[in-house]
Amino acid sequence: MMIHIFDFEWRHIRTSGAFWGTAIILPLLIGFSLYLGSNRTTQHVETINELLATETAFYDDMRSQLEAIERGDAEVDAWFQNPANPLVLGQFGEAGRHIFLHPKPLAPLAAGQLDILPYYGKVTLTGLEPLRDNALENPFMQVSGSFDFAFVLVWLVPLFIIVMGYNVISSERERGTYSLLQSQPISIRAILFQKMIIRFLLVNGIIILSLIVWSVMFGIDLFNIQGLQLIVAISLYTSFWFALCVLFNLFQTSSAMNAVGLTGLWVFFLLIIPSVISLIVTSLHPVPSRALWITEQRTIQQAVQAEGDDLFDSWIVEHPEEFVEGDTPQFYNTWMRRFVWAQTVAEREHEAERQFEEPRKRQAQLASRLRVLSPPMTLQAWLERKAGTDTERLRSLEGEMRAFQQEWQEFFLPRFRRLEFLRSDELIHIPVSHKN
Amino acid sequence: MIIYSIIRNELTQQIRDKVIVSLGLLILLLLTVSVVSGINYYSEMADQHHQAEELARVQWENQGAKNPHSAAHYGTFAFKPVTAMSVFDPGVDRYTGVSIFLEGHRQNFAAYSLAEDKEASRRFAELTPAFIFAYLFPLFIILAGYRSVVGEKENGMYRYLKSQGVSTGQLIAGKTMGLWAVILLIYLPFLLIGCLFLLLTDSLGSNLTGFSLMVAVWLVYFGVIAHITIIVSTLAKSSGSSMVILLSVWIISTLLVPRLITNIASGIYPVPDTTQFYQAVRTDLLEGIDGHNPYSEHSVAFRDSVLTAHGVDDVADLPFNFRGMMLQEGEEFEKRIYDHHFAKIDEIHRSQIRLFSFSSILSPSIAARMTSMAAAGTDMHSFNHFSRKAEAYRIELMRELNLDLKIHAVGERAAGYAVGGEFFAQNLSFTYERPDQVFIDSSKIPPLIILLFWFGASAGILSVVARKEEVL
Description:
The complex is a heterodimer of chains A (436) and B (472).
Chain A: H1 2-14, H2 17-71, H3 86-90, E1 97-100, E2 120-123, E3 128-131, H4 139-144, H5 149-165, H6 170-175, H7 178-182, H8 188-218, H9 225-250, H10 255-284, H11 290-318, H12 330-352, H13 354-370, H14 375-387, H15 391-417
Antiparallel strand pairs in A: 1-2, 2-3
Helix pairs in contact in A: 1-8, 2-5, 2-8, 5-8, 5-9, 5-10, 5-14, 8-9, 9-10, 9-14, 10-13, 11-12
Chain B: H1 2-16, H2 18-61, H3 68-74, E1 76-79, E2 97-103, E3 106-107, E4 111-113, H4 114-117, H5 129-145, H6 150-154, H7 157-163, H8 168-200, H9 204-235, H10 239-268, H11 274-285, H12 297-310, H13 322-358, H14 364-376, H15 380-408, H16 421-426, H17 445-471
Antiparallel strand pairs in B: 1-2, 2-3, 2-4
Helix pairs in contact in B: 1-8, 2-5, 2-8, 3-15, 5-9, 5-10, 8-9, 8-17, 9-10, 9-14, 9-17, 10-13, 11-13, 13-15, 14-17
C-alpha cells in the first residue's frame, strides 16, 4: 500500500509547479550561496598566506642581515636598523606576528559576523591591533546581510517546504477527492504522513544532493563527521517544518488558511521572536556607546602620561634587577619607560573594557537561552559555530592575541631590559603562534 | 454609492475578522514598543555622545603645554550625531563607526560601529518602525486582501453582486479602497505616535520634512502592495493560489532580491581591502612633500623655492618658521592624496548603491527602504556629509596649529616652542549640524521615481484588470 501511495504521489508531484519550482530554484540558490562562500573563504586563506609569507620574508631578511654583520660583511648604520636589537625584531615596522582565526572546513557555509568582526590581528611588544581588511566595505551592503548557505537553509527552505506541503490534505477536500480517500482501506492520517514523507525525502534529497554536488565543485570538504552532522541538522530542520505542515493539514481548514497559518509561523519564528529577543537583550543589558570608550581611553592615556616618571620609578623599585643603570643608550631609557607606560595603559584599558564586555556577555548568554524558542535561530547559531564565524569565536581573537603577546614579550623584553642583543642562531626561537 | 457600500462592507468584514484584527493590533503594538524603546535608546545614545563630545574638547584643551604640531599628532575626535529620526529608520547607522579620529597627516575612517557590540540575533530582525513597514506590514496587507475578489468568486457572491448591477470595476475599486481604509486604520495611529515622539524629543520642527516624506514613502509602498494584492486576488483561480503568489512576491521583493543584489553589487564593484588602500596611499605620498622629512627630494625643492622667493640662503633667515610652513604644505598635499583615494572608494560605494537602487525595479521594498533612509537622514549620503564636515574641520584645525608654529616659533622662540591650554581653548571646535532640509541628492531620485512608477504601474494594471474582468 505504502509503495502504491508513494508511486501515485510521485506521479502527482511530477505534475506540480511547486515541485519543479523547488527542484530548479533551490539548487541554483544553494549553488550561488556556496560559490560566494567559497570565494570569501579563498580570499581569507590568500590573505593569511600573504601575511605569513611577508612575516617569513621579514625574519629571513633579518637573519641574513645579522649573519652578514656577524661575519663582518656588513655594518650597522643606526640602532633602529640593527637586526639584533629586540625592538627591531619585536616592535618596529614589519616586526611582530599576525594571529589568525583560520577558516574552518565549513566556513563557506555561513558568513556569520565576519563582515563586522575581524578574523586576524597583529601583535607587537606594545601593539594589539585587530585588523579588518574589509573596513572600507559599504555599510549599506552590511544592512542587507550576506547571501550564504545559512540564509538559504534557515530563511528560504521553510518557504519551499510550506509551498510543497501546505495543501496536501486540504486540497483533496477542496477538489472533492477527500471522500474518495476516506473510502480507502488506510486511514487519512496514514495517507497524510506518507504524502509528507515523500515530500520530505524529495526536498531533503534536493538540498543534500545540491549541497554535495556544489561543494565538490567549489572544493568544500563535506565528507567527514561535520558533513554528516550538517546533513542531520538539515534533516531535523526540514522535519520541523514538515511537521508543522502535517499539523495544519490535520485541522479541517482551507488551503488558504493553512498557507496563512504556516507563513504566520514562519514570520513568528524568523522575524517576530528574533526582533523581540534582540529588544529584550539590548534593553536588559545595554552596552554603552563606544563614543564614551574612546574618550575614556584617552583619559587613561593622559593619566598615565601625567604619572609618567612616578610610574617608571616605582617599577624600577619593584624590578631593580630588570633595569640596567649607568651609561646606557638613549633609546634604552626611552623604550624602558614606554614599555612600563604601555603595560599600565593596557591593564587600565582592559579594566575599563569591562563596562562593554560584561553587558555584551550577558546579552550573549540571555540570547543563547532565548534562542531555543526559535528553531531557525538555533540552526543559524549552530551553523555559524560550525563555520567558525560566530561572534564568540571571532571575539576570542583578542584573547588569543593577548596570550600570544605575553609569549612575545617574555621572549624579547627580558633581553631588552638586560640590553642583550640577539644572535643570528637565536632568531629561530622567536615565538610563532601555534595556531599558525 | 455602490462603491461606498462595498468599502463599508469590506471594512466591516475586516473588522469582524479576528485574525485580521489580532494581526493589526499586533503590528500596532510592535510599532508602539519599537518607538517607546527607541526613545530610551535615542536619549541614552544622544546623552553619551554629548558627554563624549564635551570630554573630548576638555581633553584637547587640557593636553598640556606642547608644540602645536605635537598637538596635531595628539589629535581629537568627531562624534557622529545621534538623530531622533534613526528611531524610525536606523538605516546604515548601526554599521557606520561612531567617531572619526582627527589627526595630522592622515584621514581616518570612522571606527567602532554599534553593530560590533550588538548581539547577533539583531541580524535576523531588529524591532524598528522601518523593519515593521518593510517586512510585516506588507504581509498584513496581503493577509487582509488576498481573498478580497477571489473570495467573492469562491463563495458565489461575485455572480450575485453582478446580477445586482455591480460592475467589476466598482467591485475592484471598492475592494481597493476598503483595503486602503484598513491600512490607514493601522497607519494613522503610528503617525500620532511618531509625532508625539518627535514632540517629546523636541525635534519635530527640524524633522518635520523628513518625517512627512518618510510617512508618504511608506504609504506609497503600502499602496503598491495593496494594488498588487487586489490584482492577484482578481486574477487567481483560488484563494490558496492567490495567497501563494502574493507570498512569493513578498519573498522575492523583501528577502531574495535585496540580499542577492547586495552580494552581486559587491562582486561587480569590489572595494579594495585596507592593506591595498593604504599601500596605494603610501605610494602616492612619496610623490610629494613629507612635512617630517626635510631631506626628501620634494621637501628640498620646496625649501629652495621658498628661499629664492624671500631672497635668503638659510631657513633661519626667513621671517617665519619654515617647519610650520612645510608641515602645512605637506598637510595639504597629504589631504589631496587622501581625498583622491577616498573619492575612489566613495565612487565604488556609489556604483554599488546605484545598482542596488536600480534593482528596485524588481523590488518595491528596496525603493521604499532607500528613500525612507534618506528621509530619516540615516543613509550613506548623510553619513558621508558628516565625514566631509569632520574632514573639513580637521584640515582647518591643522592649519590653525601649523600657522601658529609658522608665525610664532621664530628666532629665539623657535627652539622648544610650546603652546598651552589658553591656545588650545581658542582652537576651532567641531559641532556638526545636520542640515534641516531632507537629504535628497541625485542618487536618491531613481529609487523615488521607481517607487512612484511601481505605484502608478500597479494602479494602472489594476484598472486594466478591472476592465478586462468586466468584459469576461
